[in-house]
Design goal:
481 residues; mainly alpha; 2 domains; 19 helices; 70% helix
């Protein structure tokens, strides 16, 4: 079931209504049933994988807490990690590693056919696997107690608003909210509805509106050289941001209707002045997950500089692989890793250069230059993220370097009306985000009457109705991860 479908339009209100009608002690049953139904609307049999992960971590969590020796605790933790990662590896990475192993065998003339299996990738498997793994790791670290109520743990693993594409919640934050009794709060419900509408605007108006242009120029980069490909890459940066952050907004808003707070997942990342800041504002639930469960266990920044750089690179390479079983994603992660390491290694020299050039006396211009530089690096990495293969990505870069202004790709991408509409949607998005970011403008927006604020919400709603794609709702991009 998609957030941008008519099915969800009746599913969510019905679930919220029943949630507040039921006694607090029985609400977990509704949430579990609704979450499993939500997932089974896609492919029913794959709900078994979620149940398997839940059973593994339920047993492991209690086993860790009851164990008296550290060795036994580690054994239960290892069983949990092995079980979850094995499921993830088989469905998502088995063929990728098998194909690369086959190429390696062929290069040295070893005649062996590596088996391959063609299963449909379970939607959201990377998200709920990381969420359930963080539970057992936190139990092992003593940060949270083992959950003895199996049904409640099952809801934590499968909670429908964030099941498919996050935010990736921590057990210490979500489980206590599933235990407490909440009453319907009109103000919270209103803010939840506003957030859902804002997320839908991002998805069906901005992201889906940009998709036509992006798909056209990337489908045949050889026919779209220079400027059209550059514009297409910038459009893709906004497409993936609005698609993914739109999902997160709808998820957070949906959970808020149920009295549950999910963590903020995006914070206008394209205003970042460095790659480090970008990853503090893009997919925050994932970046903090990798920080806490990969980067810090590797030693974090408590090591010598050379080791610090290695830790960062490993973290970003693993992050790239998490996104997909393709070398393009690994290169995407590597670009961010190299950019961050370069930024850290040259920080003092860049400060001296800025002072020498007089940029320190022009703070706003200097900050703007940093934002443009960071956005450019991010867009370069998005080429690999969007391309189907390394060869496809290289062709895109090769065609970009031709610097042919062409017709902006307008004729090939559904005509000038759609191009102008796409640009206008980005402008509207940025104006609204500026109003949300803070400062004098934001203060003025917040000071206006609620009726005016709701008027802006209705404008977004009308844009969704008029410009949104409703016949066949477009799937969210991060569903493939």
């Amino acid at each position: 079931m998609l957030f941008n479908s008519f099915s969800y339009l009746w599913f969510l209100p019905l679930t919220v209504l029943l949630y507040y009608v039921l006694p607090a002690k029985r609400r977990w049953i509704l949430l579990l049933g609704a979450s499993y139904y939500f997932y089974m609307c896609w492919k029913p049999e794959y709900v078994i994988l979620i149940v398997a992960s839940t059973v593994i971590d339920y047993i492991a969590g209690i086993g860790i807490e009851r164990s008296e020796t550290k060795g036994l605790k580690r054994g239960f933790l290892a069983a949990s990690l092995t079980g979850n990662l094995s499921i993830l590896f088989f469905f998502k990475y088995f063929n990728f590693f098998g194909e690369n192993l086959q190429h390696a065998f062929d290069m040295v003339n070893i005649f062996y056919d590596v088996p391959s299996y063609h299963f449909l990738l379970p939607v959201g498997i990377s998200f709920y696997t990381f969420q359930t793994m963080s539970y057992t790791i936190d139990v092992y670290r003593g940060k949270v107690p083992a959950e003895r109520h199996f049904g409640r743990l099952a809801v934590y693993v499968s909670f429908f608003p964030q099941l498919v594409a996050g935010p990736i919640e921590r057990s210490g934050r979500l489980l206590p909210q599933l235990r407490r009794e909440v009453r319907f709060d009109p103000d919270r419900a209103a803010s939840g509805v506003q957030l859902i509408i804002w997320g839908l605007f991002k998805k069906v108006v901005v992201a889906d509106g940009l998709a036509g242009y992006v798909n056209t120029v990337y489908f045949d980069p050889a026919a779209n050289s220079g400027f059209p490909l550059i514009i297409g890459t910038i459009f893709f940066a906004y497409q993936i941001y609005c698609d993914f952050s739109g999902y997160s907004d709808i998820a957070i808003g949906s959970a808020r209707l149920l009295g549950i707070d999910l963590m903020k997942n995006f914070d206008t990342p394209y205003y970042s002045k460095s790659i480090r800041e970008f990853w503090g504002r893009w997919h925050i639930s994932l970046s903090t997950w990798f920080r806490d469960y990969v980067y810090i266990p590797l030693g974090g920044n408590r090591v010598k500089v050379s080791r610090l750089y290695i830790n960062l690179m490993i973290t970003f390479l693993v992050s790239g692989l998490w996104h997909g079983a393709n070398w393009t994603f690994i290169v995407w992660g590597a670009i961010h890793g190299v950019a961050l390491i370069f930024s850290l290694a040259t920080e003092k020299n860049r400060e001296r250069l800025a002072a020498f050039l007089g940029l320190s006396r022009l703070p706003k211009f200097h900050a703007g230059l940093k934002v443009v530089t960071t956005f450019t690096i991010v867009c370069i990495s998005w080429v690999f993220f969007r391309a189907d293969s390394m060869a496809h990505a290289m062709l895109v870069f090769e065609q970009m370097l031709l610097f042919d202004l062409g017709n902006f790709g307008i004729e090939s991408a559904q005509g000038p009306f759609y191009f102008v509409t796409a640009v206008a949607s980005i402008v509207v998005l940025e104006l609204i985000q500026l109003a949300m970011r803070g400062g004098v403008f934001a203060g003025r927006v917040r000071a206006i009457r609620p009726a005016v604020r709701w008027g802006l919400v209705y404008v977004c709603l009308m844009a969704i109705v008029i410009f949104g794609t409703h016949d066949v709702p477009r799937q969210f991009l991060y569903f493939q991860f």
